[in-house]
Amino acid sequence: MIEWYVKGRELANCNCDYGCPCQFNALPTRGNCEAAVGYLFDEGRFGDVSLDGVKAALVAHWPGAIHQGGGTMQFILDEASSEAQREAAARIMKGEETEPMKTMWSVFAAMTDTFLEPLVRPISLQVDVEGRKAHLSIPGVLETTSEPIRNPVTGAEHRARIDLPNGFEYRIAEIASGNTRTGAEAGIRLNLKNSYGQLAHIHLGHKGRLN
Q1: Domains and CATH numbers, the chain
Q2: Which of 47, 49, 84, 141 suits 17 as a labelling partner, its CA being 20 to 30 A distant?
Q3: Collapsing DSSP states into helix, strand and coil, what is residue 129?
Q4: H or E stretch including 88?
């Protein structure tokens, strides 16, 4: 097994209501799961390959809950990265070189039947975890934004967090309002409005979460 680790930030937007029942071992809000996720690795390594500054994204769809399987997934890899970095990011997101079910990527991959052809495109991604603000833009593929949830009466920003001490993705996630629309080049169609947004610091490796 190749040893690897990544430390960085993620932005996720799925079709569930704020809070996302999946985070609590419950069924998804609308019975199925579809999502767009962007990753910015501030530092990392896959064997001898540096992953510092690497960006990647994925879009996914499951006809039911993720654990029921039958999913379809597509990776988007940053054209600014080297071929070796893109290959490493793809292998990590496909759950390879990872102890089974020790990361969210390993779980997603095990529950996916169809992996669409990966895309190599320019990825723009800014993630302010504590501010609950983020923007993921991949021309022709997808646009995802995140902003703080607001009080429906006063308009004031509302802050909520999910704390998973034993989670396989993050320790604490900031919850936001997310929007995603995929473009013509995406193999999965998404049109999410004011749904569950998740921003988190991630620190993961081949044996699972590291913090």
Answers
A1: 4-209 (2.40.400)
A2: 141
A3: coil
A4: helix 83-93
**Exposed, middle or buried: residue 182 (CB in 10 Å: 0-12, 13-18, 19+)?**
buried
Is 163 strand, coil or helix? strand
Residue 164 carries which side chain, given as an amino acid letter?
Answer: L
pLDDT in tens, 180-201: 999 999 999 999 999 999 999 9
| DSSP designation for 66 | G
Q: How far apart are CA 116 and CA 189, in angstroms?
A: 13
Q: Cα angle at 140 between 139 and 145, to 5 degrees?
A: 60
* pTM higher than 0.85: yes
Q: Cα–chain-centroid distance for residue 140?
A: 19
With H, G, I as helix, E, B as strand and everything else as coil, classify residue 21. helix
